[in-house]
Amino acid sequence: MTGEIDTAWELEVAEFYRSLGIAQGPGDIQYRLIILVLAKNGVGRLTKFSEIRNYTDGLIDRGNIGSKMKTVFQLDGLVKRVGRGEYVLTEKGAVAAEFIQKSSNYYSDIKLTREIIDRFP
Fold it and tell me: Which InterPro entries would you find in this protein's record (predicted)?
């Protein structure tokens, strides 16, 4: 994954999935932003906690991000901690990131379909 992460778009996508009752994974803005930042750097490449915070600070409390890194990402094997505040995305994490990216694409398709239907007389 390359390019910037649009936090407003990711928040909109997360809200859509939460409205469907999906509060984990695609519906969790913390999860979405963390995994996308890790994927942006790539598998096996170092991501610093400060890079993640660049995207999450406006939306999420700092303590929540650290807790999420430990309880979800490390325990599930999505990342490996290699130093203080330094993480590396694993292959398993790359699969999770691809799923999150595809969930964004799906939401985009749904949104477009809704807009087309709304234009019908």
Answer: WH_DNA-bd_sf
Q: List the helix and strand counts (H, then E) for the chain.
A: 5, 3
pLDDT digits (tens, 9 = 90+) for 76-113: 999 999 999 899 999 999 999 999 999 999 999 999 99
Closest CA to 73 of 101, 94, 45, 102: 94
Q: Which two tokens stand for residue 27?
A: 């519906």
- Does 7-119 carry CATH code 1.10.10.10? yes
Look up the pTM and report it: 0.87
End-to-end CA gap in the chain: 40
What is the spatial distance between Cα 56 and Cα 52, in angstroms, rounded to a whole number?
6
